[in-house]
Amino acid sequence: ADEIPKPILITYNITLFSHEQMKIPKTRREPNARFLEAESNLEWVDFRAQLYVQISNALFPDVVAPDFSKLDIKFSIVRHAPLPLPLVSANDYNHLLKMVSKCKTDPSVRIHVIETQPQTLNKKKDPMAKENRAPDRTEQEPPRKKAKTSKAPKESDILPANMALNDRIKRLRDKWECNVSSCHSEHCFVPAVGPHVPLSHEMFEKWAAAWLRDESLASIDTPPNIALFDDAAPHALAKKSPILQARVNNMMKNAAAPPSSAPVVNVVMPNDMFNFLRPAATAPAPVPLHEAALPAVPLASKTLLPPNCFPGLRLDMTQFCQAYRLSDQILKKFQDHAYTGTHAFRYIEMSDLNAMGFLPGEIVDLREAVAEWADPGDDRDYH
């Protein structure tokens, strides 16, 4: 009887190229590699099953049922079958075994697997995957943000100096609460002369700080002499300038001067009382009515500074407008045209005011203020 050949162990070295790898130039491809050991008496069906397991693990780990018809599978054996031959049927497998039997030692076979077409995505379901789990309530609803709670500061947490300042501010607010229905501010300072001055939080804070520092600087009835309160006391601006103070004092002195108590005697004499002392004059020739001259009308001054007057004290434009109670619109027009002080009045003409956009009423107020400011005395150095 013929002796049955003893089965031999064959090593299969498998190189696998995916469809994406085949798009890359050949010199840059990086194949997957697997190996399989099987005896020569293994049937084709069993061998093919083990080969497909290796291919699936290497190329399609997430695909449920790969389509192996989209693969090109070949084998080669060194010296005995150097050119790759197909390995898709039992006949191909039997030819492989025949070639292997010629190997004397360590038989090995190289199997080449190329994915010629991409697989249809039919991925395996992972029961623990997020998309396959039942929706969790914590995943459905976004995390809620904790609401910030604000607590009123305790009295013990406030510094003593701040407590005293807050107390002065409270007293000022109570004192200067505005009850006038037509006023839009809740708190107003009401000076002895002038309109209401709305009080802001900053003004209350500055007022209380000055009062807390020294009562000679401010009190509950008198605001501090700072720029923030210039609108509350326009004449307080004079305290910042000795020259302006002297000017304001002189103005107030003249305004307060009592009228003279001496009797006034008016004597009316006829126009021709002294005509007998004059020689007789010949009557002028009659002039036709159409040639008669109209009465002479004095021309208005073309300059802002009145004729026969000289500049008064030198002030900046803000001080001048506040001291003579001119509107903010007048001040803004001077500032928009870069007029910084009263030294410019001697050079400004009425046509300049019209060009600057002054309204007729503003021109009247300005000329009145300049006439009051100007010095009717002799000319002197203007500094």
Helices and strands, with pairings:
Elements: E1 9-17, E2 32-39, H1 44-59, E3 71-77, E4 81-86, H2 90-100, E5 108-115, H3 137-140, H4 160-175, E6 188-189, E7 197-198, H5 201-213, H6 242-256, H7 317-323, H8 328-336, H9 350-355, H10 360-373
Parallel strand pairs: 1-5
Antiparallel strand pairs: 1-2, 3-4, 3-5, 6-7
Helix pairs in contact: 4-5
Task: Give me some keywords for this one.
rod-shaped, 29% helix, two-stranded antiparallel ribbon, 11% strand, alpha+beta, 10 helices, 383 residues, five-stranded mixed beta sheet
Structure description:
With 383 residues, the protein is of the alpha+beta class. Helices cover 29% and strands 11% of the residues. It contains 10 helices and 7 strands. It has helices at 44-59, 90-100, 137-140, 160-175, 201-213, 242-256, 317-323, 328-336, 350-355, 360-373, and strands at 9-17, 32-39, 71-77, 81-86, 108-115, 188-189, 197-198. The strands form 2 sheets. The chain has a 5-stranded mixed sheet, with helices on one face. The protein has a two-stranded antiparallel sheet with strand order 6-7. A hairpin with a 3-residue loop joins strand 3 (71-77) and strand 4 (81-86). Helix 4 packs across helix 5. The radius of gyration is 56 Å and the shape is rod-shaped.
